[in-house]
Specification:
Number of strands: 2
Strand order of the largest sheet: 1-2
Number of helices: 9
Strand content: under 5%
Largest sheet: 2 strands, antiparallel
Order of helices and strands: HHHHHEEHHHH
Distance between the termini: 27 Å
Radius of gyration: 16 Å
């Protein structure tokens, strides 16, 4: 577990850039994002876009199932609003980063730092923070050992959004994009 003050600012910026860039401006539900997802579904009949805020993801991970149903989504939204009434944004972000599944048997960003890089969280660089933020969405899909091209592309997408959100410069982005992604050779890597 990490406390909020132990989470590097660059990691927070990476996570917010890819997961919920309006996190500090909404009350648990991002109406703009939700409307966009509904419009996409109506026009394409496809569930291709995710619309959950960080608070909604926390609600789902702590209290609900992963099944994709309308009822679960409504419960997720209501629970997110309740969470936002009780906890500060920094507390919500801390709970989220301490409880997310981020690899085989790996929960929380501190454990992920050790698992993927064998380093403490505060010793990672921009590229590594961007990788961790990117792998949150789907650790299996972005596994650096099984899907290195996907992991590389996802990390670079995080860097792109970090630049778009003004957290890093174009020069920092291009330098970080050249860094290799981690190769896991630990006993905990699934076969």
């Amino acid at each position: 577990m990490v406390e909020y003050h132990e989470i590097p600012t660059t990691l927070i910026q990476a996570v917010l850039s890819i997961e919920d860039h309006r996190f500090y401006r909404h009350w648990g539900i991002d109406i703009f994002r939700t409307t966009k997802v509904i419009a996409h579904y109506i026009t394409t009949r496809s569930k291709g876009q995710g619309g959950s805020t960080i608070t909604q993801q926390l609600a789902r991970n702590l209290f609900l199932t992963q099944r994709k149903t309308i009822i679960r989504k409504l419960k997720e939204m209501l629970t997110a609003v309740k969470i936002e009434r009780i906890y500060s944004k920094n507390e919500i972000l801390t709970m989220y980063l301490n409880n997310i599944y981020i690899g085989p048997g790996v929960y929380g960003i501190k454990a992920a730092s050790d698992y993927y890089f064998s380093k403490p969280l505060d010793q990672l660089d921009l590229s590594q923070y961007a990788f961790l933020a990117g792998v949150i969405q789907s650790p299996g899909l972005y596994s650096p050992n099984r899907h290195p091209k996907r992991a590389y592309a996802r990390r670079n997408l995080v860097l792109y959004f970090m630049e778009e959100n003004g957290y890093i410069t174009h020069s920092e982005r291009t330098t970080a994009e050249q860094a290799p992604i981690p190769a896991i050779s630990r006993n905990t890597q699934p076969e």
